[in-house]
């Protein structure tokens, strides 16, 4: 985040694995807070797995500005169907 901000970026898309535990969400929320407080990044979008409404709210309160959620399949027949 510091390098990106130093290069003039003001938005960040933070990609994580799918770890839907409250402990992980609390850690992610703290990372978002630190990025916003310690850099010139002003927008942190999150690419996270499916979470509970309360977990999304925790991330929003930390300053996350948006979420990307992808539902994927690697089954060729199912992919064509969808």
Distance between the termini: 36 Å
Rg over CA atoms:
15 Å
Mean pLDDT: 93
Order of helices and strands: HEHEHEH
How do the strands of the widest beta sheet line up side by side? Answer: 1-2-3
- The structure class reads alpha/beta
Are there runs of 5+ residues with pLDDT below 50, and where? Answer: none
User: Count the strands?
Assistant: 3
Largest sheet: 3 strands, parallel
Tell me the strand percentage band: 15-25%
Helicity, in percent? 40-55%
Individual helix count? 4
Please outline what is shown here.
With 82 residues, the protein is an alpha/beta fold. It contains four helices and three strands. It has helices spanning 2-6, 22-38, 53-61, 76-81; strands at 11-15, 43-47, 66-68.
Question: Can you give a write-up of this model?
Answer:
- By secondary structure, the protein is an alpha/beta fold.
- The chain is 45% helix and 16% strand.
- It is built from four helices and three strands, in the order H-E-H-E-H-E-H.
- The chain has helices at 2-6, 22-38, 53-61, 76-81, and strands at residues 11-15, 43-47, 66-68.
- A three-stranded parallel sheet has the order 1-2-3, covered by helices on one side.
- Strand 2, helix 3 and strand 3 form a beta-alpha-beta unit.
- The chain starts with a helix and ends with a helix.
């Amino acid at each position: 985040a510091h390098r990106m901000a130093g290069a003039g970026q003001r938005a960040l898309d933070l990609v994580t694995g799918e770890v839907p535990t409250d402990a992980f969400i609390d850690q992610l929320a703290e990372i978002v807070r630190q990025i916003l407080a310690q850099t010139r990044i002003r927008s942190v979008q999150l690419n996270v797995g499916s979470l509970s409404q309360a977990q999304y709210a925790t991330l929003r309160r930390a300053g996350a500005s948006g979420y990307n959620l992808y539902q994927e399949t690697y089954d060729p027949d199912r992919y064509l169907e969808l």
